[in-house]
Amino acid sequence: MSNKVAVLVAGSWGTALASVLAVNHPDVMIWSRSSEQVQEINEKHMNSRYLPGADLPANLKATTDMEEAVTGSRAVLIVAPSKAMREVAHSLKAYWHKDMLCIHATKGFETETMKRMSTVISEELGCEEGEIVVLSGPSHAEEVVRRCPTTVVVASLNQKAATMAQDLFMNADFRVYTNRDMLGVELAGALKNIIALGAGMSDGLGYGDNAKAALLTRGLAEITRIGVEMGANPLTFAGLAGVGDLVVTATSKHSRNWRAGSMLGQGTKLDEVLSTMGMVVEGIRTTKAAHTISEKYGVQMPIADQLYQVLFEDKDPRSAVEALMGRDPKTEMESMRLETWELWHS
């Protein structure tokens, strides 16, 4: 079997994961549409647009030709933004075959259909969704590329595929656990971005650590509630893909979602936030998706609902926080389903 691994595309997270793979394997090729980016990776071993100052492994090669990147690979890692996932997966179809391991590391929904990324990929490749592997967990690209100790999870309904992905990535700096709850891992990775936006907004308003701790705690309950309603295992939300990823995304200067939320809290309008960021902020699209999903399943998501009003209905951030604080009194466990509690304590 070939040792070649292909990575699509060369954003910050794709490049960071490609660098992990290049430590483990001699033949790793990353695909990008930008010829300037490809030239810089090949000649200077850098991706200055997305990971300024980071040195990439010399054996990591780049190409603008997807066929060149994918042909002969034993595994393909897709790290396209959620809005571009269907297009990238559609282009991959011509070169992909059923014996090729398919992994994705994108945290979001297809906004138009509310579909998870594994569903989008399976539809375009014509493969079973359960054969795809999802990589998620607390991991900033800026730290991964510097080989800071990082732990993630790979999830698939196919245990063999998950183990293959685990072996592909595992090294002294990058520890990988497996999980069969593919649905829960994808939902946790996407929905935590909403809470990270809220945490940034709280910090931008100057509300301090007490408010942020409460927001993260109630946000995790909110994510778990909708996740269980959709069929996920509640224990997943207490793991790396859930609370682990939530904490790192909602508290770090590296987090685009936190930074975007902080700017909103300081009074910057959404269009200006997006223009200033210059990169995809998945939490904004995910907030729109969560608003639709919560209505579909009849599950209350008050934090996501208030953020939706701030982002898309021009509600004042301070008024949104006041609305959350002014909700009717409840017991802490009132909104959690009994069967969820039983699973957590079994």
**Can you tell me the CATH topology of the largest domain?**
Rossmann fold
Mean pLDDT: 93
In DSSP terms (H or I, runs of 4 or more residues), the helix count works out at 16
Which architecture of the largest domain would the CATH scheme give at its second level? 3-Layer(aba) Sandwich
Give the name of the CATH superfamily of the largest domain.
Answer: NAD(P)-binding Rossmann-like Domain
- Number of strand segments: 10
Return the CATH class of the largest domain.
Alpha Beta
Based on CA inertia axes, which overall geometry fits?
A: globular
Binding site for sn-glycerol 3-phosphate: 107, 137, 139, 192, 245, 255-257
Active site: 192
EC number: 1.1.1.94
GO molecular function: glycerol-3-phosphate dehydrogenase [NAD(P)+] activity; NAD binding
